[in-house]
Specification:
With 318 residues, this protein is an alpha/beta fold. The chain has helices at residues 14-25, 66-69, 92-112, 147-166, 187-197, 217-230, 248-258, 290-293, 303-317; strands at residues 5-9, 29-34, 53-57, 74-77, 117-123, 169-175, 177-179, 201-204, 211-212, 214-216, 235-240, 246-247, 265-268. It is globular and about 60 Å long.
Length: 318
């Protein structure tokens, strides 16, 4: 794979910038397309003067730019609005920034007629309230309980259809909660900043018993490369997550410990629909990852270790 022309949408964001770092280290020619709505050039500034790196500030909702995709052999599509909760307030955001943006990208890929592989970052939220835990990739029926999850499932369907209609390979990653430096959303990041503002009290959405999987960004990027290198079928779907779960209460305890705080009072909001943090929050999530493990991947960190490391990175690097 090394040396190929690669394009990363959302490449200045959290996951995208870490992926870009690894692509550059591996000597790919990398183009980033990002509107900088949530990403920042600071995340990729060390590559800006590198002749093998190109940054294009562009919104995928704008008129499609086919020229940007000509010559690119692999596309990593990470651009999206990642805030699950915003769908309860304005569902149009996920329909536009996830579904419409993905459709525009696929149309540009179709017209450029050069892409060999499209890698799409989906989400564990496509499973909804799964009856099987850990949840395998072939679990059905898929019943998302959030507009965000529905938008990701819609994107998956579009990606699969375009791949099989127009003859390129598609790899879909269903991600657990990814944590680490450069993250600007999610419960770990939120807890750090809440406790910075008030080290005596921590507001916790829901009842704190929500139980989920957390994976460090280092493990996530490694998984994405293993899937890329070992994909066999025209369309491949891989879960990416850690091997265990922790509750939100435990996560809050870890964050306080890493910040050196004691006797932090937890204030629970009570939540919605049985203690969830918000309408559409999945209360219990753990992904079955044996499919990717059979290709040679194994996470280095557990959920607790991932969160601890992420808190240290957020505190030291932001």
């Amino acid at each position: 794979m090394n040396g190929k022309q690669v394009l990363v949408t959302g490449g200045a964001g959290f996951i995208g910038s870490h992926l870009t770092d690894e692509l550059m280290v591996r000597k790919f020619d990398v183009t980033i397309v990002d509107n900088l709505s949530s990403g920042t050039l600071k995340n990729v500034e060390k590559w800006l003067e590198n002749p093998k790196f190109t940054f294009v500030r562009k919104d995928l909702l704008d008129e499609r730019d086919v020229e940007t995709f000509k010559g690119c052999e692999i596309v990593f599509h990470l651009a999206a609005n990642p805030e699950v909760r915003i769908g309860t307030v304005d569902p149009r955001i996920h329909c536009q920034q996830n579904i419409q943006a993905t459709f525009n990208l696929l149309e540009a890929i179709r017209e450029a007629n050069a892409i060999q592989i499209l890698v799409f970052a989906s989400s564990s939220t496509v499973y909804g309230e799964a009856a099987v835990i850990p949840t395998p990739e072939d679990y059905a029926p898929l019943k998302p309980v959030s507009v965000y999850g529905a938008s990701k499932l819609s994107c998956e369907a579009l990606v699969m259809a375009y791949a099989q209609t127009y003859g390129f390979k598609a790899i879909i990653y269903r991600l657990a909660n990814i944590v680490g430096s450069r993250s600007r959303h999610g419960v770990t990041y939120d807890f750090v900043w809440k406790l910075r503002r008030n080290p005596k009290e921590l507001e916790i959405l829901g009842d704190g018993t929500q139980t989920k999987s957390y994976l460090h960004i280092e493990d996530c990027v490694k998984a994405m490369f293993i899937g890329l290198e070992k994909a066999e079928s025209q369309v491949e779907i891989f879960n990416i997550g850690s091997e265990n779960q922790i509750t939100v209460k435990t996560l809050a305890k870890i964050v306080a410990e890493e910040m050196g705080l004691e006797n932090v009072e937890h204030r629970f909001t009570g939540g919605a629909n049985g203690g969830r943090g918000w309408v559409g929050d999945v209360k219990n999530m753990l992904l079955e990852t044996s499919r990717l493990k059979s290709r040679g991947w194994k996470p280095r960190y557990s959920s607790e270790e991932s969160v601890r490391l992420a808190v240290r990175e957020i505190l030291s690097k932001g």
